[in-house]
Amino acid sequence: MHDGRTVPNSKFAAIFDEIANIGATPNEGVTRLAASPEDGVARGAFAKWMKQGGARIAHDAIGNQFACFDWAGDDAPWIFAGSHLDTQPRGGRFDGTLGVLSAGSAALELHEQVSSGRVRPARNLAVVNWTNEEGARYQPSLTGSAVFSGALPLDDALALRDGAGISLKEALAAIGVVGDKGAVPPSPEAYLELHVEQGRKLLEAGRQIGVVEGTWAARKATVRWIGRASHTGPTPMKDRRDALLAAAQGIAGFETVIAANHPLLHRSAARLVVEPNSPNVVVDRATVWFELRGPSVAELDAAGNLALAAFEKVADDTGTQLEIVADALRNPASMDVTLMAIVRRVAQACNFPPETMRSVAGHDAVALQNRGISSALIFIPSVDGIAHHPDELTHPDDVQAGLTVLTAALRHLVEGGFNATRR
Length: 423
Ligand SMILES: [Zn+2]
What we know:
Blueprint: H1 10-20, E1 24-25, E2 29-30, H2 37-52, E3 56-59, E4 65-69, E5 78-83, H3 97-115, E6 124-129, H4 143-148, H5 154-158, H6 168-174, E7 190-196, H7 201-205, E8 210-215, E9 217-226, H8 243-261, E10 266-275, E11 285-294, H9 297-318, E12 321-330, H10 337-349, E13 355-359, H11 364-370, E14 375-380, H12 396-414, H13 417-422
Parallel strand pairs: 5-6, 5-7, 7-14, 8-13
Antiparallel strand pairs: 1-2, 3-4, 4-6, 8-14, 9-11, 9-12, 10-11
Helix pairs in contact: 1-3, 3-12, 8-9, 10-12
The chain binds zinc ion.
Zinc ion binds at residues 84, 95-96, 133, 195.
């Protein structure tokens, strides 16, 4: 298929188009939620492609997929590269998919070079597809990488339930992912992830490659107002305890108080669940997912506390009760300095002078880095910064720049370059 969005390098383009089209519908982008049937098809296509290129496939009990190249023997350390194949509802073609398939493409190229003796591997390499990075179907996001790195217990992750009450364990089983399969590689020496920027900084800087030095912090709170169900007709107004009215005021109050006091924080209320959700019943429970992001934990603390006070006041004003269902802080991450330096040097050598930047969004590389697995995150430009939308686009020459740098960086790491630099 050619729709003007095809990426360069015909081999890469073929697999990219194949997988980016799984779950795609005209004008509505790609819907390939974690552990859905579409995700199952994408996993199968990825595994088939990698196996044809000489990899063996393994998966762990949370469904992280590993395409393994055991080049350097059982005792050799591992290098990982990858991202995620799940998407948001009506998401884009590039987010995550680009990272998995560019790592796969790099691995296949290196495999040819290893086979022909042009690369002498001192490390094994695995291309990884992490489960439920997006957090669209199951919260929290970054589930697979969090389990792999030990930040989230496996049983807790498998017990997560989607909006329909289906557990992640059940959903994975439905697409044939049960328990460990194959020899899952140990924790790697280093992890590289190529991802689209989802912002405009690279375009504004006129650069094709970004090296991420760290991320913003995030505070995510799930807040519920509890009212009382009653008939929307006869119930006297003074007797109503309307949880949806409270949520509406809470959302508006959140924006007002944060805009006034912490205008630079990124903020959202992006999910609302109303119960019982009948046109004739005053809303009993309204649950809202709020989010604040910024570079400083102290500022997120202060802003979050202002928001919670505003939510309390709304509960008082509407005669509802406030319940804080979850309130989690994600610390800002600093990516591995040695790996960053390697990627910068490689990018420079490939004639792509890199931009050093921060990521607002979380990524699997950040989850791993936060648990002590040396990780680097490489960005390529997103047209107009559009993300989580069908119009998400990265130009072919930018994709090629990312592929070139990722492949060269992985070659260096597979030859033992990370450890050599650290010594
Ligand atoms: Zn992503």
